[in-house]
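Revision sheet: structure tokens.
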Amino acid sequence: MLEQVKGEDSLFLVNDTSLTRFLQLEQQLREATLIITEEEYEYFKKQMALDLWMLLTRDTQDLIEHTENRMIFMVRAFFLDQFKTDPSLPAMQVEGKRDDRLAFLYAIYVVATFSDAIDRFRGDTEDLDKTLNRIAEYQHRDLASLFDASYQMIEAYPREFVLIQREVIEVVAKLFASNQRVIHAQTRQLMKEARAIYQAIYRSEETIS
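Predicted:
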């Protein structure tokens, strides 16, 4: 599911070793990734998983944010910043640095939980539904190319795409603010579920060996 992830599109600077390890974990834990629905915003979710895994497995001083990509992938940057405020993050980082396999499961479960939350918000909020329908037109495009020099010969700045992203962020920010307790509770729950999957897979392997 995550084989199309690109290190160059991450919100962090990702070296080849880190990307290779992430993709190895995807192969090992492929069944776990099936909890992420792929019908819409597939690439967004794949890249979000990589961003989260990097956040959970690296010391802060070792993480270098990709400033240009934060400007291009504004919605993804917003979601990552929201996650950084979650009270459960420090515990997840401690565990993730200790074992990047658990960090991978946490990343997958966070993406699935955020995706489910957006689907619920979308059903209740007409403005969000309309805006997401507009941004969906871009989901199969190479978004970074909209900002490169060759594209700027056609349009100096991809203004429409930027404005749509800002609209999504504005609506979702209000929804997240009013549902903060629920979202934080969901994070605690997903941690339990991810740990249970981790223990079921790796403890059984230890028992066999």
